[in-house]
Amino acid sequence: MQKEIIQLLHEKRLKEAFAHIKEAANTLNDWELQSQIETQQTTYNYMLQYTAMGTQDPQRENIYQQLMCKAYELTDKTFFLKEQEKAYGYYADKFRKFAQVPPHSFKEIDFMLEAAGHPSPAPENETEKEAQTLQNYTLHKNAVDELFNKIWVSTQWSEEEYQEARLLLTSPSMATNDKAVMISALTLNLLQIFDVRKFTLLLSACQMSGELAVSQRALTGIALVTYFQPERISLYPDLVSALKLMADNPVLLKQLHDIQIILLLSRETEKIDKKMREEIIPQMMRNPNLRKPELKAIEIEDIEDLNPEWQKDLEKIGDHIRELGELQMEGADTYMTAFSQLKTYPFFQEAAHWFYLFSMKVPDLYQIYKDKTFEKQSLLGMVVNSQVFCDSDKYSFCLAMKSLPHDQQTFMLSKMSGEEIIPKEIDGSGNPAERQVNAIQQQYVHNLYRFYKLWRFRTEQHDIFKDKLDFWNNPLLRPLILKGKYHEQIAGYLFSKGYMQEAAALYETLVQKEPDQAETWQKLGFAYQKNKLYEKAVNAYQQADLIKPDHLWTLKHLAHCYKLSGDFSKATQVFQRVLAFDPDNLNTLMQVGQCLAAQKEYAEAIKLFFKVEFLESHPEKARRAIGWCYFMSGKYEEAIRMYEKLLALEKPQANDWLNSGHVYLAMGQVPQALEHYRKAAADCASTEEFISLFLADKEALSTQGISDCQIYLITDILR
Q: Are 538 and 565 in contact (CB under 8 A)?
């Protein structure tokens, strides 16, 4: 029913929507919710009556908008409560626990944090002092955990709750860690149920520039919530205006751009895993192009190399990523794999603990290290002080030490000698303050990633990292992410990582803004080419050629796309332009010959292939093309001589046996043909695979006078 109500609200059918919301809420034992619905419904009914009477009300538009917002909120709340009523698991248990025994108020939590930070008079001995310290750390942890859960499982706040939460966030009792955990709870909650007041608090927290861990978590939360909840945010003009104002803050824009890059880098883990599982390099005989008789003389060269002139730009992208420390993300994937086995400690059972800033003052670590000292240059010291590892992994590393033998513990605590084994911090260039911000952003995203991927109860929630996290495709974030230079930088990042479909979409809009940039047209063409959109690639390369005529890289790729799209005549023309720069370029000569052969201009093609054979130190490709052209020209004796040279190689290709078999079949020498076919079949995965390759040449065999009857008799003989 929720989708139906949302659809009614989209269609502005507010009267029907309120009726359905009320019906859905009646199944819940929540009189306060039902009262809220009835109040809004009554207000709207009065509005309808006054409107029908012709009453003029200057506030009507504002009140109507408020009613629409309230209807969405009540819908979200109603179905959130209905879902939790029947749900089970960690989150539902926390929700029901707080429903039965309400948590402390924000004011009370403030008092609890203050009390934990101001211990009783100093104990008389060391044992009592340690016990007192542990107790204070435990009280503090319990208060922070309760704060996290209180926010995480809440529905929309009242104005009073919002004001209390806002005061708590700025309270002197709140340490940076406590605020950071609070911001993470706000983000996780908003990703499940939108609340204008919580989002407003995130916006306020983003301005806490003095505490980077807080402001960067808030900015990350704003970006993620806006990405996943654009329709809800759009209902509130003040929130939309606040987001638009970010465009006037260059520091904030850069930080948001960096967060986008870091989130995009999180794709690499899945990408690498997928390659390892699924990517298999196909054998040449399985190449689909070999199944097309008209392309038998064509061996598609992979000339889709990058334009050398882009190297400087690509190096800048690499430098930018290195500054963020995010080339470590691919390394961090390895770290995550290694540390994933260390997330089973009781410490990680609590959701809040995945978002703690690293500190030795948590009870779990204090009990292990209270009587230990370690050098800053020890293995342990280097790990906990490194910006390469996120907070979650640092906790894993420290907790793991408890189970190590005494000798290994001593090793980890003692000063290291010789070469460090921990990755060094990336110095990078530019502003040190910006690098510090980048490191904080990186660590937080890694914390989030581990929470969604490794937490024991992760299946209870939607994994945000399964989404593309392409902020530029969000209507509210797009003006921020693609403003100015960031448009090209995001496109360049996607391009450099091989996300060509997304890169093409950004380059499409970029060429509209800057249509006179040949390089952008080149990259757009290259992205299209990688996506096998050859006609679009041709158009883009043509534009690049108009702006920057006779650019060798453009011409090669334009010709190649003509060839791949089957327009061999135009491909020949463009390749001839390429030859004007380098008449003896063997690759280009082969390309022209292949295009001529595809147009059945075998005599001209053979001339070029012989030139390549003469100049090439390894002329096998040219000889294969010559052999096929002789076969298609009916010059069987010449074809056999060429194939004999190929079959004399140490490892002849299956295709050479197949094609020479065709020549013998056309010559009427069936036993020899069968012998060669059987040798070709021996190099295939199965007989049927060979048969499919054989039948792919049916049209070519027919042109040489071989009947369908004979072709199918051959297949049955070989089976």
A: yes
